[in-house]
Write a structure and sequence with these properties.
Chain A: It comes from Thermoanaerobacter siderophilus SR4. The complex is a heterodimer of chains A (about 300) and B (about 250). Chain A has 2 domains: about 220 residues, 3-Layer(aba) Sandwich (Rossmann fold), CATH 3.40.50; about 70 residues, Alpha-Beta Plaits (2-Layer Sandwich), CATH 3.30.70.100. In chain A, helix 2 packs across helix 3. A 6-stranded mixed beta sheet of chain A has the order 6-7-8-3-9-10, sandwiched between helices. In chain A, strands 2-1-4-5 form a 4-stranded antiparallel beta sheet, with helices on one face. Chain A has a 4-stranded antiparallel beta sheet with strand order 12-13-11-14. Chain A contains 10 helices and 14 strands. Chain B is mainly α and about 250 residues long. Chain B has 12 helices and no strands. The chains are: A alpha/beta (about 300), B mainly alpha (about 250). At the A-B interface, strand 6 and helix 2 of A face helix 1 and helix 6 of B.
């Protein structure tokens, strides 16, 4: 459905994308993860034909995309990170305006606009001027614009950033709903819990390079690393120093009274964890083992990339 | 054609809701009413200030009342138009308002044409209306040296063509410059420079500013070259604007 090979983009001498490649299959949700400034929005803008790229190839539905091939745009819906509208229009007027640009037949427009306003839960605010919309409402209207004329592929750039929990919940549910309707979704985000909730595939973009691209499950299996969260009665002062020398411990994080121990050899950890804790001679309130989250994996991979 | 129609409607909604029509109407039509009235009252107003026979000092007739309106159109009204419309294209690009329309297949050339056409028609209507109103007041208040309405109409068309040239130039500069105010200032500078260049006989008829001189003289002689030149410049500037818009990154 979407294929990118060796995509490169430069701004002057600065190379934002350094030959990235990935593939998204039909009906899946692909999440492009990365820190702010990693190149996610640049990738989005290239994939939606808004900006040119310097090298590489992009195929959408088997057809090559470049800025001169605007026909492919018809198969795409795009929600930018900060959607901007003509604020003096109402939500409904704006959808009619975009429908006119798309050339949607007059008799079909009314039904489609009403359906979309229902889908994004904006029906009550449809006749309100956009300048009076909250950030969440603007995001929902942007989503309605992206979905207009039923495109097969939807690109969502940071769809949940800066939203309140309720709007975030709504948007994520709508993304899952779109997947149920057979849409292929490519989203970029730095909110990893959102990606974990909706994505089938993820790509980790760091410093203009994709350092992982594949199934989310595969990523978790490959980089799975158990974590022991230990709550102490009083936080030991020299715990990090003492535990850092242990071979099977990969990393230690201390937050409030909890020490999180990241393990690289689970068998060794099982045998020795209690022994190592007892050496600290501080009363333990609880010890719990959990699997690491996408956030843990992401931070680890980005750290590894920094050392390269 | 879809983009053209959609943007034409959008420009109408925008101009209405942002009071652009009202500002332009006041900026153009107000002087059409005020000029003849002020000129009529001028001798009365100055009577107490200047001694002597004012009627012989200030001789105002219908022709000079209309010429005064043309002078205002050439100065204050032009400034109002430039300040009102200076952000027409640039503001939309810089605030990323074109992202959604473009991502839904909008044709950037059609956006440029719709903007030029909308403001050309709007300003032409206001200018011709202004001249008609000015004619009514001027003929009502002054009875000497009356000019026929058809000549006034030709003058209004010449002024309209000049304004269309100004709008096209403003939109062109707005597509290449990052700030609308700089585009407006540049148009103003070019307007002033051409008012000087028009005094060179050999090139005068090729300079759009000559349209103002022709409108002011109420003459129909040798107007074709200047009209054709101005229209040609408008076409060339429009083509350049479309080419630039199709090359810039709108995000």
């Amino acid at each position: 459905m979407i294929k990118a090979f060796n995509l490169t983009k430069k701004y002057g001498k600065y190379e934002v994308l350094k030959g990235i490649s990935f593939e998204v299959e039909k009906g899946n949700i692909y999440g492009l993860l990365g820190r702010n400034g990693a190149g996610k929005t640049t990738t989005m803008n290239i994939l939606t034909g808004l900006i040119d790229y310097d090298e590489g190839e992009i195929y959408i539905n088997g057809k090559m995309l470049n800025r001169n091939n605007r026909k492919l745009i018809n198969e795409i819906g795009y929600l930018p990170e900060n959607p901007t509208f003509y604020n003096y229009m109402t939500g409904s007027e704006y959808l009619y305006f975009i429908s006119k640009i798309r050339g949607i037949p007059h008799q079909k427009v009314r039904t489609e606009v009403e359906e979309l306003l229902n889908t994004v839960k904006l029906k009550e605010a449809a006749n309100k001027k956009i300048q009076g919309y909250s950030r969440g409402m603007k995001q929902k209207l942007g989503l309605a614009v992206a979905l207009l004329d039923n495109p097969e592929i939807i690109f969502l750039d940071e769809p949940t950033s800066a939203l309140d929990p309720e709007s975030r919940y709504d948007i994520l549910n709508q993304i899952l709903e779109m997947k149920k309707n057979g849409k292929t979704i490519f989203l970029s985000t730095h909110i990893l819990s959102d990606a974990e909730r909706v994505c089938d595939y993820v790509g980790i973009l760091d410093k203009g390079k994709i350092i992982f691209s594949g199934r989310l499950k595969e990523l978790k299996q490959k980089y799975i690393q158990p974590v022991y969260d230990i709550v102490f009665e009083n936080l030991p002062t020299n715990a990090e120093e003492k535990l850092n020398n242990v071979k099977w411990i990969d990393d230690i994080k201390i937050e409030n009274d909890i020490i999180s121990i990241y393990v690289n050899d689970i068998e060794a950890a099982k045998k020795n964890i209690l022994n190592e804790i007892s050496k600290l001679s501080i009363p333990v309130i609880s010890l719990q083992r959990r699997e690491n989250t996408l956030e843990d994996i992401f931070i680890r991979m980005v750290k590894q990339n920094e050392h390269l | 054609m879809n983009t053209f129609k959609a943007y034409l409607k959008k420009e109408i909604i925008e101009s209405w809701r942002h009071y652009k029509y009202l500002i332009l109407l006041i900026g153009i039509v107000l002087f059409a009413i005020l000029d003849p009235i002020i000129l009529k009252l001028l001798p009365e107003m100055l009577k107490n200030e200047i001694n002597g026979d004012l009627a012989s000092l200030i001789q105002i007739d219908m022709k000079s009342a209309v010429q005064n309106y043309i002078k205002d159109l050439n100065q204050i009204s032009l400034l109002i138009v430039l300040l009102t419309l200076m952000g027409t294209l640039r503001e939309e690009v810089s605030s990323q308002k074109l992202v959604f329309p473009y991502s839904k297949g909008a044709n950037l050339s059609a956006i440029v044409i719709s903007k030029i056409l909308h403001y050309s028609v709007t300003l032409s209507i206001f200018i011709i209306t202004g001249f008609a109103i000015n004619y009514y007041y001027a003929t009502t208040l002054f009875h000497n040296n009356v000019i026929a309405f058809n000549k006034i109409l030709i003058s209004s068309i010449l002024m309209s063509i000049y304004y269309i040239f100004i709008i096209t130039l403003l939109i062109f500069l707005s597509s290449i410059l990052k700030k609308g105010i700089i585009a407006a200032l540049l148009v103003l500078i070019l307007h002033i420079v051409s008012s000087i260049l028009v005094n060179i006989d050999k090139i005068a008829k090729f300079i759009p500013y000559n349209l103002i001189s022709l409108a002011n003289s109420f003459s129909t002689e040798n107007i074709l070259t200047t009209i054709i030149s101005a229209i040609l410049y408008c076409i060339i500037l429009s083509i350049f604007t479309m080419k630039i818009m199709n090359k810039i990154e709108i995000i």
